Input
Amino acid sequence: MTSLFDRHRAVLPDWLALYYRHPIEITHGEGRHVWDSEGKRYLDFFGGILTTMTAHALPEVTKAVSDQAGRIIHSSTLYLNRPMVELAERIAHLSGIPDARVFFTTSGTEANDTALLLATAHRGSNQILAMRNSYHGRSFSAVGITGNRAWSPTSLSPLQTLYVHGGVRSRGPYAELSDGQFINACVADLEDLLGHTREVAALIAEPIQGVGGFTSPPDGLYAAFREVLDRHGILWISDEVQTGWGRTGDHFWGWQAHAENGPPDILTFAKGIGNGMSVGGVVASARIMNCLDANSISTFGGSPVTMAAGLANLSYLVEHDLQGNARRVGGLLMERLRAVAAQLPLVREVRGRGLMAGIELVKPGTDEAHPEAAAAVLEAAREGGLLIGKGGGHSTSVLRIAPPLTLTVAEAEEGAAVLERALRSVS
Output
């Protein structure tokens, strides 16, 4: 009998990445665990790339999806849609953006694509600033602004993009500076860059870079950038696809670590809000959102079923203070991982916030990336019953850890123990 892996390779693109030497088929999940087609159970520390944010098979979400599907699955945005309006009202309020409007999409890629459309239309410019080491999706425009070579297959783009320092604290030309000096140097770089370009539409930035390996600047960098951007009329787009909804523990949105000069002009979200359903979106003030002078709709964005899932998931998250759980349990997990890392020359750094942790691996005694070790740890963790992710950019190798926000202390300890064994087996 032909294996599912062979069938996959026969009909799907070669560039569609799969984890593991022998890829696994995940058949079902519950809570923080999933099972493969051979019946093996895994503790899930990656949540479908930070998408199963709350829990697998969360009853409140599955019931909302089932109930809505039993009424109507689809109608498009050409008709009034109660779940979409209700979710938009809640997100507009939570966003922190004054006079906010919300547009729903089916993915983070599409959300960022829409944000770029709004910014360039509003400013009458196709010049974009992005961060080095960034990732914003796989559409033509999103790939064109992505500052991570491994995830950018073409240099062709409808946009002109210039890249700014600051997304990576512990590498690059400013790594040895203090936090204050680092911010000042990045701001000076931004000021200098703006002296060499035509009018810029927007800066797009992830508060914590996801695919880039959970890297981030010191708190306050984007607030300092905002002072420069405001002087030039340049919009700030905060890509919250991976940092939104309380995952960082300290804040509901990643931008709130840089809030001194107010919220972003445009905020994008996706992944976790649907707890596995395909939901993304853009939040902007009415003056920006309503700047388009042509008709537009979304066939699948704002689907009644995905909106019902988002409403149920958001309600559960807020009512059970999952942001607080991310802060408490994530803090314990981070301490445990740092204690392990201190004993292993393989680990250069453990970084992150809340339930969003990155473990950067290097060849012992050097500062050189060690992708072979990252792949080996990924395999060893799977053998031990733990699913994690990996990432990195500009010659870095990083293990990515982002469990559902309902993670318990016992599960955090269990996962950390498996990770310790996996890391030691490779060291």
Q: What stands out?
A: The chain is about 35% helix and 15% strand. The chain has a mean pLDDT of 96. The two ends are 38 Å apart (CA to CA). The first helix runs from residue 4 to 11.
